[in-house]
Amino acid sequence: MHFADVTGDGKADIITQEADGGVSMGVNVGNGFDNYHRITGTGWGDYLNTKNIHFVG
């Protein structure tokens, strides 16, 4: 589990690596996390290779 401002709104969003290697994230809405969804298939693969995930802050 990691926290980083993925959405660029100044709040730390939650990023988790699932048991199968996929990556999911939840958007910080100020009083919890919402819109928790999977952002990759299995493994980091293409997202790291194409730099589609950017950690801010």
In terms of topology, how is this protein built?
Layout: E1 2-4, E2 13-17, E3 23-28, E4 33-38, H1 45-49
Antiparallel strand pairs: 1-2, 2-3, 3-4
Q: In short, what is this structure?
A:
Helices cover 9% and strands 35% of the residues. It has 57 residues and is mostly beta strands. It has one domain (2-49).
Description:
- By secondary structure, this protein is mainly beta.
- The chain has one helix spanning 45-49; strands at residues 2-4, 13-17, 23-28, 33-38.
- The protein has one domain (2-49).
- The chain has a four-stranded antiparallel β-sheet with strand order 1-2-3-4, with no helix packed on it.
- The longest helix is centred in the C-terminal third of the chain and has 5 residues, at 45-49.
- It starts with a strand and ends in an 8-residue tail after the last helix.
- The relative contact order is 0.26.
